[in-house]
UniProtKB/TrEMBL annotation:
SUPFAM superfamilies reported in the protein's UniProt record: DNA methylase specificity domain
GO molecular function, a single term: DNA binding
Positions of the Type I restriction modification DNA specificity domain: 5-174, 281-392
Record's keyword annotation contains Endoplasmic reticulum: no
A Pfam family the protein falls into: Methylase_S
Domain of life: Bacteria
Name of this chain's protein: Type I restriction modification DNA specificity domain-containing protein
Keywords: DNA-binding, Restriction system
Organism: Deinococcus arcticus
Length: 676
């Protein structure tokens, strides 16, 4: 039987809207609570503060829902989750006080979905719009019971985190690409594909008008390595609804041609236009009007002609290749030259003379190919992530349409359905008829990470390792943690390391890691997996939801802490997870594994302390205890390190040095799994 327990509720029934205060410039100061204005909703950290009492003003706390009722369409108008510090609300923004039985994350997602409709109805010009409180309160939302709200919010919030993580990956890749481009155009690549080093080999470099460059490079104007530099047709072309592409500056993006908004000319007009300017595959196009300096190559198989807002560069391919030219023209140095020509003109136009005089570095054609190949490979990684982002955003839009309109219902455990039927505060007065064949969204599959980072013994069965990881994924699904960032993990490390002095400290590990956004699970390893631990992400490749799992293979405190820190190192150091199909060749002595070992060792015992101690080897029991007290660690951590270094485990295995902590590990496992 489909559930019929949904009803329409107005926003006024779901929450109360409270407007912020009209702070005046004379109220502003540099101390006190920050005043939250519309600009701060979009990430601005420029705050004015209010130094007097907050009484009579709307106080905003982290996690509160806000609604900007006066702002720009698509940017500053609509709902926001406040993730900043405690502050006071400025005018033109509502704080939402939720009615009992309303999940804040569900309401936020519902308002995001509703906002385009509100914007259409809002008052104002095409850009800046506003809406009255009474009008906003009248909009309706299809409101399911609280358990279903939470499930919908969980699905959509998970997608949001994955999208945000993918966006961060793209931003990092793009920044790295710019840095790589700068280095390659300053240092080049030798025959082995390695960056030249001006400090180690200064004799290989010389000073040029573009700065210090490899000695065997040339520096030249673009006109000296081009057969022709011109712009498009100066007459208004005869356009058609189809035919040959007619490109303008708006179609020239950096590294690609945008053809979603393009004009056409008939064949006869095309033949006329190419008599003066004949674009061919391999030629370079530059936007020379409006946003000037964007560069893209004409791809193979494309027939096109140009209007005058786009410039054409026909290269002498024996001196300057297309791929290298595109990257060189997109570089910060060449773009600075283009900006300088713009500053000398009243309008943002780039003329042929300025393009001809652009100065570029000129390696050999072979080195150009090596440089362009490396940059193209990096760009492919960016494009892959951009494609993933497009798919995730499309999935999010589709799920919002399905879940927030009631077109698709999420399945709930029977107990939750019964509870909601029995006493939910939003019991409908009139039920909405739902047909028997109404579609129900399947339970979202666990985001099983095909790639992970493992710490396992030799001979581990890869299928068993993967199965153990899948069990970890299922086990952590209900955990609620903060948002992960490397800085958040760094912030909790002192507290985490403070737990290493006592054998009971491991019981607090999940709570500490949750503050950093890391899910933790202790799970018996499956037969033949021989796995000590694993680290992975629920949202790979977004990498914003890390998981660390440990097994119960060895009931010793030093093993627990070393394995935990080893897996955390993979997360903190940004190591790439190993795809499942590569586990057969997984090298436990790889640079990443060695780096994780070193990170864990150095956190447990500072290197200078250990080196000074081990230099006096062999060590007595009192000396081992003394070092443990000195560095604030349990004796088993020092004893375990000593046994590892000396390969003499019988020396450190007596219970007074390495006590068995099976009881503590079992208690931790029960705490995590909810078993008695």
């Amino acid at each position: 039987m489909p559930r019929l327990d949904v009803q329409k509720k107005t926003l006024g029934q779901l929450c109360r809207f409270e407007n912020g205060s009209a702070f005046r410039p004379e109220d502003w100061g540099s101390h006190g609570l920050p005043i939250i204005r519309i600009q701060n909703l979009n990430g601005s950290t420029d705050f004015n503060c209010f130094e007097r009492s907050s009484e009579g003003h709307v106080v905003v706390n982290p996690g509160d829902l806000l609604f900007s009722w006066s702002g720009s369409r698509g940017t500053s108008f609509g709902p926001f989750r406040w993730n900043g510090a405690k502050g006071l609300l400025n005018q033109h923004i509502f704080k939402l006080h939720l009615t009992s039985g309303v999940d804040p994350s569900w309401l936020f997602q519902s308002l995001k979905h509703l906002t385009p409709t509100i914007e259409q109805d809002a008052h104002g010009a095409s850009g800046l719009v506003h809406i009255k409180k009474s009008e906003l309160e009248g909009y309706e939302l299809l409101t399911p019971p609280l358990p279903e709200q939470r499930r919908i919010a969980e699905i959509l919030d998970t997608l949001d985190r994955t999208i945000e993580g993918t966006q961060r990956v793209i931003e990092k890749l793009q920044a790295s690409r710019q840095g790589l481009l700068h280095d390659l155009l300053k240092r080049g690549l030798d025959e082995r594909g390695q960056l030249r080093d001006p400090e180690q080999n200064p004799q290989q470099f010389e000073s040029t008008e573009l700065g210090i460059l490899p000695r065997d490079w040339n520096v030249t104007q673009l006109q000296n390595v081009a057969h022709k530099i011109t712009d498009g047709d100066h007459h208004t072309p005869k356009r058609a609804s189809s035919g040959v592409l007619l490109l303008s500056a708006r179609n020239v993006l950096n590294g690609e041609l945008a053809l979603d908004d393009v004009d056409y000319v008939p064949e006869q007009e095309y033949q006329r236009m190419i008599r003066r300017c004949f674009p061919e595959p391999g030629d370079i196009l530059i936007s020379c009007s409006g946003t000037i300096g964007r560069v893209a190559a004409i791809p193979a198989g494309m027939r096109c002609c140009l209007v005058r807002s786009a410039a054409l560069v026909k290269l002498n391919q024996t001196q300057l290749t297309t791929r290298f030219a595109e990257w060189a023209l997109r570089s910060s140095g060449t773009q600075a030259q283009i900006r300088n020509t713009q500053l000398q003109a009243a309008q943002p136009n780039l003329f042929q003379g300025a393009i001809q005089q652009l100065i570029i570095p000129l390696p050999s054609v072979d080195e150009q190919a090596r440089i362009a190949g490396l940059l193209d490979g990096f760009q492919n990684r960016v494009d892959t992530e951009l494609s993933k982002l497009d798919k995730l955003q499309a999935l999010k839009r589709g799920l919002m349409d399905d879940l927030l309109t009631g077109r698709v219902r999420v399945p709930l455990p029977a107990a939750e359905v019964e509870d909601s039927d029995a006493g939910h505060p939003l019991r409908p007065a009139a039920q909405i008829a739902v047909p028997e064949d109404f579609p129900v969204i399947p339970t979202m599959p666990a985001l099983v990470p095909q790639p992970a980072m493992y710490r396992a013994a030799a001979g581990a069965d890869t299928q068993a390792m993967s199965e153990w990881t899948r069990q970890l994924v299922e086990a952590v699904q209900g955990q609620r943690v903060a948002t992960y960032t490397p800085d958040a993990l760094d912030a909790v490390l002192p507290e985490l390391m403070g737990l290493t002095s006592d054998r009971q400290g491991l019981l607090k590990v999940p709570d500490v890691l949750s503050k950093a956004g890391v899910r933790f699970m202790l799970l018996p390893h499956t037969s033949q997996s021989k796995t000590n631990g694993a680290a992975f992400y629920l949202d790979e490749p977004g990498r914003t939801q890390p998981v660390v799992g440990l097994s119960l293979r060895y009931p010793y405190l030093d093993v627990f802490w070393f394995n935990l820190l080893h897996e955390l190192a993979h997360i903190r150091l940004g190591h790439a997870p190993v795809p499942e199909e590569s586990l057969e060749e997984y090298d436990t002595s790889s640079p990443d594994e060695q780096a994780a070992n070193g990170w864990a060792q150095d956190l447990l015992i500072p290197p200078d302390e250990w080196q000074a101690f081990f230099a006096r080897h062999p060590a007595s029991d009192p000396q081992l205890f003394h070092l443990a007290r000195r560095v604030g660690r349990h004796i088993s951590i020092v004893a375990g390190r000593y046994g590892h270094e000396t390969k003499n485990w019988s020396r450190v295995n007596p219970p007074k040095l390495r006590p068995n902590v099976t009881a503590e590990l079992k208690a931790l496992s029960n705490k995590l799994t909810g078993e008695p």
